[in-house]
Every structure is written in C-alpha cells, then in structure tokens.
UniProtKB/TrEMBL annotation:
InterPro entries the UniProt entry points to: Methyltransf_25, SAM-dependent_MTases_sf
Domain Methyltransferase: 25-115
Name of protein: Methyltransferase family protein
A Pfam match: Methyltransf_25
Listed GO biological process terms: methylation
Keywords linked to the UniProt accession: Methyltransferase, Transferase
Amino acid sequence: MRPLARRAAELAADRSRADAPATAVELGCGIGIEARFLAASGFTVHTVDEDASIEQAMATLSTQLPIHHTRADLAQLPELPRTDLLLSCATLPFVPEPAFGALWARIREALRPRGILAVDLFGERDDWAGTDGTYLRRADVEALLDGLEILELTEEERDGRSFSGPKHWHTFRVIARAR
C-alpha cells in the first residue's frame, strides 16, 4: 500500500453523502492493491488501466468489492466519473506530453467540490525525462494546481532502483483539494 493512497483516503474519508458512498477513481490501478484498500475503506472505486493482463484480477475484485474497472489508454480517455478522490500513483508521467493537458483537464473536471486529488508526477531531472512521457518543472506542477487548495507538494530527488535497474528519481507528490 502506497502512503499516498493511505493519506488521500484519510483526507477524503468524510466525503460520504446521504445519497451514496464516497467515490474514488484510480488511474493506473495495476493489480488493484490501492483499489482494494479504497473499497475496504468505504469508497465505490472506478479503476482505469490499459494493461490487459490485469483484467482477470480486476474482474475477480469486482465480484467481491464495489470496484468497477475500465481498460483504457489514459491518453485517450474520453471522460471520468465525478469523484470525491482521484488517485494516480506513478502513472500520469507515462502519458505522452501532447495528451497530458487534456487528461489533466478531465481530472480537474471530475473532482467534486472539496474532492481530493492525490498524484505522483515526475520532474524534469528524472532519468527518464526526454522519453515519451510528461516531465515537469516545479513551476509547471504549481500551475497545474492553480485554483486547488494544496495540502502537500513534496519534491524529491534521489538515486534508487527501477524495474530496469539503477535510476535517478525526480518526483512530485501532490495532494490537493478542490474548492
């Protein structure tokens, strides 16, 4: 369980409405670890991931918990459901830059008033910068958050590992609230 998901769920926990449970959208859900946590925390969860290999795992989860999975490329996603919490752990940076702005607009539109946005973004000094994705300067991240209440904006640079070996990470961890 990623700390970003846990913190976002805590902040959005009071979002249940009289007419329905709180909703969460997870972009890039992988095998559903965070989705399972969010559903167990009382959210109705909508997941989006383009990886066909996880569909069976998500289908199994959907029979046990209020999780609704969509297989889709985030760069071509036409819309998102209205949500109290939008979570994306280390997925948005892989959206090609030409499609990122439109996706970000859909993310902002999906947030209900006082909804929580919790995302990881990659910075311009990340080792993968220059590859097909979106890598941002701090000023770019701050501009994306304009009009939101920033609860956390943590920039980190560190050397570590990735699935392909050693890597220099430049990341932004963002938690914000819609007004």
